[in-house]
Amino acid sequence: MTTRLREQAEHSFSGGESALIGMLGDRLVSVLRSHNTPSTLYYVCADGETYVVKVEFGRAPTLRDEIRWYRDVARRGLPRSLFITGHAGPGLSFLLLKRFGDGSTVDDLALAGESAGQLGRHAASALDDDIELFHRTERHVGQDHVHQLTERRLAVRRSQAREFPYLRTLMDADVVTMNGAGLPGVSRCLNRLFGDPRLVSYLTPDRVGMTFGDLHCGNILVHEGSTEVVDPRGGHLLPITYDYGKLVQSVEGGYGAIMAGRYVLRRTGKAAYEFAVEAVPGYAGLAALLAARCDERSYLQSLFQAALHFVAMLPHHASAQEETTALFLCGVSLFDKLLALLA
Questions:
Q1: What burial class does residue 306 get, using C-beta atoms within 10 Å of its C-beta: 0-12 exposed, 13-18 middle, 19+ buried?
Q2: Which range of residues forms the domain containing residue 225?
Q3: Given CB 3.0 to 4.6 Å as the disulfide criterion, which of 93, 102, 184, 257 pairs with 188?
Q4: What is the pLDDT of residues 225-274, one digit of tens each?
Protein backbone atom coordinates (compact mmCIF):
# COMPACT_ATOMS: atom_id res chain seq x y z
CA MET A 1 0.00 0.00 0.00
CA THR A 2 2.73 2.48 0.96
CA THR A 3 4.65 1.73 -2.24
CA ARG A 4 1.59 2.28 -4.40
CA LEU A 5 0.74 5.53 -2.62
CA ARG A 6 4.29 6.77 -3.11
CA GLU A 7 4.18 5.86 -6.83
CA GLN A 8 0.88 7.70 -7.27
CA ALA A 9 2.16 10.74 -5.37
CA GLU A 10 4.93 11.14 -7.94
CA HIS A 11 2.49 11.31 -10.86
CA SER A 12 -0.52 13.36 -11.77
CA PHE A 13 -3.14 11.44 -9.81
CA SER A 14 -6.16 11.13 -12.10
CA GLY A 15 -9.55 10.09 -10.80
CA GLY A 16 -9.25 11.88 -7.46
CA GLU A 17 -10.72 10.31 -4.37
CA SER A 18 -12.69 7.62 -6.20
CA ALA A 19 -9.45 6.29 -7.70
CA LEU A 20 -7.74 6.41 -4.31
CA ILE A 21 -10.61 4.50 -2.66
CA GLY A 22 -10.42 1.93 -5.44
CA MET A 23 -6.69 1.55 -4.84
CA LEU A 24 -7.19 1.03 -1.09
CA GLY A 25 -9.83 -1.60 -1.86
CA ASP A 26 -11.12 -3.80 0.95
CA ARG A 27 -8.45 -2.47 3.32
CA LEU A 28 -10.48 0.75 3.65
CA VAL A 29 -12.47 0.82 6.90
CA SER A 30 -13.87 4.36 6.97
CA VAL A 31 -13.35 7.92 5.73
CA LEU A 32 -13.35 11.10 7.81
CA ARG A 33 -13.71 14.57 6.26
CA SER A 34 -13.92 18.03 7.77
CA HIS A 35 -15.10 21.29 6.26
CA ASN A 36 -12.25 23.25 7.86
CA THR A 37 -9.26 21.32 6.54
CA PRO A 38 -8.19 20.22 3.06
CA SER A 39 -7.04 16.82 4.37
CA THR A 40 -9.14 13.65 4.37
CA LEU A 41 -8.44 10.74 6.73
CA TYR A 42 -8.71 7.18 5.44
CA TYR A 43 -8.73 4.45 8.08
CA VAL A 44 -7.29 1.25 6.65
CA CYS A 45 -6.70 -2.22 8.03
CA ALA A 46 -3.60 -4.24 7.16
CA ASP A 47 -2.02 -7.23 8.92
CA GLY A 48 -4.59 -7.01 11.68
CA GLU A 49 -3.70 -3.39 12.54
CA THR A 50 -5.58 -0.18 11.80
CA TYR A 51 -3.72 2.76 10.28
CA VAL A 52 -4.59 6.32 9.31
CA VAL A 53 -3.72 7.62 5.85
CA LYS A 54 -3.99 11.40 5.71
CA VAL A 55 -4.25 12.64 2.11
CA GLU A 56 -4.38 15.91 0.19
CA PHE A 57 -4.52 16.06 -3.59
CA GLY A 58 -2.47 18.46 -5.67
CA ARG A 59 -0.01 20.93 -4.18
CA ALA A 60 -1.07 20.24 -0.53
CA PRO A 61 1.02 22.87 1.32
CA THR A 62 -0.50 22.07 4.72
CA LEU A 63 0.25 18.37 4.56
CA ARG A 64 3.72 19.00 3.12
CA ASP A 65 4.49 21.13 6.17
CA GLU A 66 3.17 18.42 8.47
CA ILE A 67 5.35 15.74 6.84
CA ARG A 68 8.37 18.03 7.13
CA TRP A 69 7.58 18.61 10.82
CA TYR A 70 7.61 14.88 11.59
CA ARG A 71 10.93 14.45 9.79
CA ASP A 72 12.50 17.48 11.46
CA VAL A 73 11.47 16.25 14.91
CA ALA A 74 12.92 12.80 14.20
CA ARG A 75 16.23 14.38 13.14
CA ARG A 76 16.36 16.14 16.50
CA GLY A 77 16.01 12.86 18.38
CA LEU A 78 12.35 13.29 19.34
CA PRO A 79 10.49 10.99 16.93
CA ARG A 80 6.72 10.71 17.31
CA SER A 81 5.59 7.14 17.93
CA LEU A 82 2.56 7.32 15.60
CA PHE A 83 4.52 8.44 12.54
CA ILE A 84 5.39 5.75 9.99
CA THR A 85 6.11 7.59 6.76
CA GLY A 86 4.94 10.36 4.50
CA HIS A 87 5.53 11.60 1.00
CA ALA A 88 4.74 14.80 -0.87
CA GLY A 89 4.45 14.68 -4.65
CA PRO A 90 2.80 16.54 -7.51
CA GLY A 91 -0.17 14.18 -7.64
CA LEU A 92 -0.98 13.85 -3.96
CA SER A 93 0.64 14.00 -0.55
CA PHE A 94 0.06 11.43 2.14
CA LEU A 95 0.98 10.78 5.74
CA LEU A 96 0.80 7.27 7.20
CA LEU A 97 0.22 7.02 10.96
CA LYS A 98 -0.54 4.28 13.43
CA ARG A 99 -4.03 4.59 14.84
CA PHE A 100 -4.05 5.55 18.53
CA GLY A 101 -6.94 4.09 20.50
CA ASP A 102 -10.42 5.02 19.31
CA GLY A 103 -9.51 8.61 18.47
CA SER A 104 -10.85 10.11 21.72
CA THR A 105 -9.50 13.55 22.55
CA VAL A 106 -9.27 15.79 25.61
CA ASP A 107 -12.19 17.72 24.10
CA ASP A 108 -14.24 14.51 23.95
CA LEU A 109 -13.48 13.73 27.59
CA ALA A 110 -14.26 17.27 28.73
CA LEU A 111 -17.59 17.36 26.90
CA ALA A 112 -18.44 13.93 28.35
CA GLY A 113 -17.93 15.26 31.89
CA GLU A 114 -14.42 14.01 32.72
CA SER A 115 -12.85 15.57 35.82
CA ALA A 116 -10.38 18.42 35.55
CA GLY A 117 -7.70 16.33 37.23
CA GLN A 118 -7.74 13.66 34.54
CA LEU A 119 -7.94 16.26 31.77
CA GLY A 120 -5.06 18.13 33.36
CA ARG A 121 -2.80 15.08 33.33
CA HIS A 122 -3.32 14.61 29.60
CA ALA A 123 -2.92 18.31 28.78
CA ALA A 124 0.19 18.57 30.97
CA SER A 125 1.75 15.55 29.26
CA ALA A 126 1.20 17.07 25.81
CA LEU A 127 2.45 20.47 26.96
CA ASP A 128 5.56 19.00 28.58
CA ASP A 129 6.44 17.28 25.28
CA ASP A 130 5.89 20.57 23.47
CA ILE A 131 8.08 22.48 25.91
CA GLU A 132 10.88 19.89 25.60
CA LEU A 133 10.78 20.21 21.81
CA PHE A 134 10.78 23.99 22.10
CA HIS A 135 13.76 24.10 24.47
CA ARG A 136 15.80 21.73 22.29
CA THR A 137 15.40 24.10 19.34
CA GLU A 138 15.02 27.45 21.10
CA ARG A 139 16.84 30.52 19.89
CA HIS A 140 16.75 34.26 20.47
CA VAL A 141 15.46 36.24 17.48
CA GLY A 142 14.24 39.51 19.00
CA GLN A 143 10.75 40.90 19.44
CA ASP A 144 10.67 42.60 16.04
CA HIS A 145 11.03 39.27 14.26
CA VAL A 146 8.25 37.63 16.31
CA HIS A 147 5.94 40.61 15.86
CA GLN A 148 6.49 40.54 12.10
CA LEU A 149 5.56 36.85 12.04
CA THR A 150 2.34 37.72 13.86
CA GLU A 151 1.51 40.60 11.56
CA ARG A 152 2.19 38.60 8.38
CA ARG A 153 0.06 35.67 9.48
CA LEU A 154 -2.76 37.96 10.52
CA ALA A 155 -2.61 39.99 7.30
CA VAL A 156 -2.91 36.83 5.18
CA ARG A 157 -5.88 35.50 7.14
CA ARG A 158 -7.67 38.85 7.25
CA SER A 159 -7.23 39.15 3.48
CA GLN A 160 -8.67 35.65 3.05
CA ALA A 161 -11.58 36.50 5.35
CA ARG A 162 -12.47 39.53 3.24
CA GLU A 163 -13.30 37.23 0.33
CA PHE A 164 -16.50 36.33 2.23
CA PRO A 165 -19.00 39.23 2.45
CA TYR A 166 -20.42 38.22 5.84
CA LEU A 167 -16.92 37.87 7.30
CA ARG A 168 -15.92 41.25 5.89
CA THR A 169 -18.93 42.76 7.68
CA LEU A 170 -18.00 41.08 10.95
CA MET A 171 -14.36 42.13 10.76
CA ASP A 172 -15.26 45.75 9.95
CA ALA A 173 -17.73 46.18 12.83
CA ASP A 174 -16.49 48.88 15.21
CA VAL A 175 -18.71 47.61 18.01
CA VAL A 176 -20.09 44.10 18.46
CA THR A 177 -23.08 43.79 20.78
CA MET A 178 -23.14 40.50 22.64
CA ASN A 179 -25.97 39.72 25.06
CA GLY A 180 -26.72 43.43 25.32
CA ALA A 181 -23.15 44.56 26.00
CA GLY A 182 -21.21 46.55 23.40
CA LEU A 183 -17.67 45.23 22.88
CA PRO A 184 -14.97 46.71 20.64
CA GLY A 185 -14.72 44.95 17.29
CA VAL A 186 -11.69 42.97 16.16
CA SER A 187 -10.15 45.69 13.99
CA ARG A 188 -10.57 48.21 16.76
CA CYS A 189 -8.89 45.88 19.27
CA LEU A 190 -5.99 45.17 16.93
CA ASN A 191 -5.48 48.87 16.24
CA ARG A 192 -5.43 49.52 19.98
CA LEU A 193 -2.90 46.75 20.66
CA PHE A 194 -0.64 47.20 17.64
CA GLY A 195 -0.76 50.98 17.92
CA ASP A 196 0.85 51.02 21.36
CA PRO A 197 4.58 50.10 21.26
CA ARG A 198 4.54 49.32 24.99
CA LEU A 199 1.75 46.76 24.57
CA VAL A 200 3.43 45.25 21.52
CA SER A 201 6.63 44.84 23.53
CA TYR A 202 4.81 43.38 26.53
CA LEU A 203 2.83 40.87 24.45
CA THR A 204 5.68 39.78 22.17
CA PRO A 205 8.27 37.15 23.20
CA ASP A 206 11.79 37.29 21.79
CA ARG A 207 12.52 33.55 21.57
CA VAL A 208 11.24 30.94 19.13
CA GLY A 209 11.62 27.20 18.60
CA MET A 210 9.86 24.16 17.19
CA THR A 211 6.39 23.52 18.65
CA PHE A 212 3.43 21.33 17.76
CA GLY A 213 1.89 24.50 16.42
CA ASP A 214 -1.72 23.45 16.98
CA LEU A 215 -1.93 22.21 20.56
CA HIS A 216 -5.65 22.61 21.13
CA CYS A 217 -7.60 20.01 23.10
CA GLY A 218 -9.07 18.45 19.96
CA ASN A 219 -5.60 17.41 18.84
CA ILE A 220 -4.59 15.75 22.12
CA LEU A 221 -5.50 12.06 21.81
CA VAL A 222 -5.96 9.91 24.90
CA HIS A 223 -6.07 6.15 25.34
CA GLU A 224 -5.77 4.08 28.53
CA GLY A 225 -3.87 6.80 30.36
CA SER A 226 -1.50 7.58 27.47
CA THR A 227 -1.40 10.78 25.43
CA GLU A 228 -0.44 11.61 21.86
CA VAL A 229 -0.68 14.81 19.83
CA VAL A 230 -1.66 14.86 16.15
CA ASP A 231 -1.95 17.46 13.38
CA PRO A 232 1.28 19.38 14.04
CA ARG A 233 1.90 22.48 11.95
CA GLY A 234 5.21 22.95 10.17
CA GLY A 235 6.66 26.20 8.93
CA HIS A 236 8.07 28.99 11.04
CA LEU A 237 9.71 28.52 14.40
CA LEU A 238 7.27 29.95 16.94
CA PRO A 239 7.19 31.27 20.51
CA ILE A 240 5.96 28.69 23.03
CA THR A 241 3.08 31.03 23.92
CA TYR A 242 1.67 30.30 20.45
CA ASP A 243 0.79 26.80 21.67
CA TYR A 244 -0.15 27.97 25.15
CA GLY A 245 -2.58 30.18 23.25
CA LYS A 246 -4.03 27.13 21.50
CA LEU A 247 -4.81 25.61 24.89
CA VAL A 248 -6.29 28.88 26.15
CA GLN A 249 -8.41 28.96 22.99
CA SER A 250 -9.77 25.53 23.97
CA VAL A 251 -10.31 25.94 27.69
CA GLU A 252 -11.26 29.64 27.95
CA GLY A 253 -12.46 30.36 24.43
CA GLY A 254 -14.77 27.36 24.13
CA TYR A 255 -13.36 26.20 20.80
CA GLY A 256 -14.08 22.52 21.44
CA ALA A 257 -17.63 23.18 22.57
CA ILE A 258 -18.31 25.23 19.45
CA MET A 259 -16.91 22.55 17.17
CA ALA A 260 -19.24 20.08 18.93
CA GLY A 261 -22.22 22.39 18.36
CA ARG A 262 -22.63 23.10 22.07
CA TYR A 263 -23.61 26.76 21.83
CA VAL A 264 -26.62 29.02 21.24
CA LEU A 265 -26.43 31.87 18.74
CA ARG A 266 -29.14 34.28 17.58
CA ARG A 267 -28.66 37.48 15.65
CA THR A 268 -30.67 40.34 17.15
CA GLY A 269 -29.53 43.25 14.97
CA LYS A 270 -26.63 44.59 12.96
CA ALA A 271 -23.49 43.23 14.67
CA ALA A 272 -25.70 42.27 17.62
CA TYR A 273 -26.12 38.74 18.97
CA GLU A 274 -27.39 36.63 21.80
CA PHE A 275 -24.61 34.12 22.27
CA ALA A 276 -23.69 31.51 24.85
CA VAL A 277 -21.23 28.61 24.81
CA GLU A 278 -22.05 25.67 27.04
CA ALA A 279 -20.16 25.88 30.32
CA VAL A 280 -18.05 22.72 30.62
CA PRO A 281 -16.74 22.15 34.18
CA GLY A 282 -13.68 20.26 32.97
CA TYR A 283 -12.59 23.22 30.85
CA ALA A 284 -12.89 25.60 33.81
CA GLY A 285 -10.71 23.33 35.92
CA LEU A 286 -8.23 22.91 33.10
CA ALA A 287 -8.03 26.69 32.64
CA ALA A 288 -7.02 27.05 36.28
CA LEU A 289 -4.34 24.38 35.91
CA LEU A 290 -2.97 26.07 32.81
CA ALA A 291 -2.93 29.51 34.41
CA ALA A 292 -0.96 28.07 37.34
CA ARG A 293 1.86 27.12 34.94
CA CYS A 294 2.23 30.69 33.64
CA ASP A 295 3.42 33.94 35.14
CA GLU A 296 1.25 36.99 34.47
CA ARG A 297 3.08 38.10 31.35
CA SER A 298 3.25 34.69 29.67
CA TYR A 299 -0.45 34.17 30.46
CA LEU A 300 -1.38 37.49 28.83
CA GLN A 301 0.82 36.65 25.83
CA SER A 302 -1.02 33.33 25.57
CA LEU A 303 -4.41 35.03 25.87
CA PHE A 304 -3.36 37.40 23.09
CA GLN A 305 -2.39 34.46 20.90
CA ALA A 306 -5.69 32.71 21.67
CA ALA A 307 -7.67 35.75 20.50
CA LEU A 308 -5.54 35.92 17.35
CA HIS A 309 -6.11 32.20 16.71
CA PHE A 310 -9.85 32.78 16.57
CA VAL A 311 -9.40 35.55 14.00
CA ALA A 312 -6.88 33.56 11.95
CA MET A 313 -9.10 30.47 11.67
CA LEU A 314 -12.20 32.26 10.36
CA PRO A 315 -11.47 31.76 6.61
CA HIS A 316 -10.96 28.02 7.12
CA HIS A 317 -14.43 27.67 8.69
CA ALA A 318 -16.18 30.18 6.45
CA SER A 319 -18.37 27.63 4.65
CA ALA A 320 -20.20 27.05 7.97
CA GLN A 321 -21.48 30.58 8.62
CA GLU A 322 -23.10 30.10 12.02
CA GLU A 323 -20.10 28.21 13.40
CA THR A 324 -17.73 30.85 12.02
CA THR A 325 -19.79 33.65 13.56
CA ALA A 326 -19.60 31.84 16.91
CA LEU A 327 -15.82 31.56 16.58
CA PHE A 328 -15.62 35.27 15.74
CA LEU A 329 -17.64 36.17 18.85
CA CYS A 330 -15.33 34.05 21.00
CA GLY A 331 -12.38 35.99 19.61
CA VAL A 332 -14.11 39.29 20.42
CA SER A 333 -14.71 38.06 23.99
CA LEU A 334 -11.05 37.11 24.47
CA PHE A 335 -9.84 40.44 23.07
CA ASP A 336 -12.17 42.21 25.50
CA LYS A 337 -10.82 40.16 28.42
CA LEU A 338 -7.23 40.86 27.34
CA LEU A 339 -7.77 44.62 27.10
CA ALA A 340 -9.46 44.63 30.52
CA LEU A 341 -6.51 42.81 32.09
CA LEU A 342 -4.01 45.14 30.40
CA ALA A 343 -5.83 48.27 31.57
A1: buried
A2: 106-342
A3: 184
A4: 899 999 998 667 999 999 999 999 999 999 999 999 999 999 999 999 99
